[in-house]
Amino acid sequence: MATVIAAAASGSAGADGALAGAVAATTVASAAAGSLEALEHACFGEGLPAPAEHELQLASCCYAAEDVAERHLLRACELAPEHPATLIGLYRFYFYRNRLDEALAVGMRCQELAARANGLAPDWTMVRGKDINFSSMSVLPRFYLFTLKACAYLRLRLGDLNCGGAMLDKLTELDPTDKVNGSVLRGVLDRLGQDDEE
Predict the structure, then answer these.
(1) Do residues 153 and 147 make contact, with C-beta atoms less than 8 angstroms apart?
(2) Which of 101, 95, 53 lies closest to 73 in space, CA to CA?
(3) Are the beta carbons of 66 and 97 closer than 8 angstroms?
(4) Is 46 a domain residue?
(5) Is residue 135 part of a domain?
(6) Is the terminal CB of the chain with fewer CB neighbours within 10 Å at N or C?
(7) Is 101 helix (H, G, I), strand (E, B) or coil?
(8) Is a pLDDT exceeding 60 seen at residue 4?
(9) Residues 134 and 193 in one domain
(10) What is the pTM of this model?
């Protein structure tokens, strides 16, 4: 089942594509900046402390040495714990290593950060479409949608179809025009349900 989900979702970039999309839209950000305006500026490339950036570079240079690369990524997160650049770097590392439980844990931290940045409830089930303008192409709403999609994907990959499906329902509610292509994952889940019935 996880293989089916992985293969189908890869066409829409899957979990890594979801957060990679968030990186493209929000390269760096700091939830501790004190205001949404400061965070939005950070999303476009400002605010990553030089020591944290250095740790990310070191991790990239020794990526094949898993333990060493992970230490550098964890150190980067210690230096800038509220920064999407460090969190997403760690997320991608776990994702590509197929350490999906750990990738999900980091993805959830990204989602919490995105919720705070947008002034949303920390519990994704409590977020409503009227809370902010999710149809906007602004960085922060899209960051939230991307993280929700990524976490939904990982829930599905890990076999938690109920939670993953509920997250996709929420994504559809918040993104009815399907800007982040959540419908692809929904289609995969629906096909799995049809196969079970047959």
Answers:
(1) no
(2) 53
(3) yes
(4) yes
(5) yes
(6) C
(7) helix
(8) no
(9) yes
(10) 0.78
One domain, residues 83 and 131:
no
Helix (H) or strand (E) holding 197: helix 182-197
With beta carbons less than 8 A apart as the criterion, state whether 182 and 171 touch: yes
Q: Are residues 89 and 125 in the same domain?
A: no
- For residue 28, what are the β-bridge partners? 44
Residue 6: inside a domain, yes or no?
no
Q: Is 93 among the domain residues?
A: yes
In degrees and rounded to multiples of 5, residue 103 shows phi and psi of -60, -40
Are 136 and 191 found together in one domain?
yes
Task: Give the pLDDT of residue 192.
Answer: 75
Instruction: Write the secondary structure of 112-160 as one string of H (helix), E (strand) and C (coil).
Output: HHHHHHHCCCCCHHHCCCCCCCCCCCCHHHHHHHHHHHHHHHHHHHCCC
β-strand partners of 44: 28
> What pLDDT is recorded for position 31?
30
pLDDT of res. 175: 96
Residue at 181: amino acid letter: N
CB atoms within 10 A of CB 28: 21
Q: How many domains does the chain have?
A: 2
DSSP class of residue 28 equals B
Average pLDDT, the chain: 81
pLDDT in tens, 58-99: 999 999 999 999 999 999 999 999 888 899 899 999 999 999
Same domain, 89 and 131: no
Full domain range(s) for residue 156:
121-197
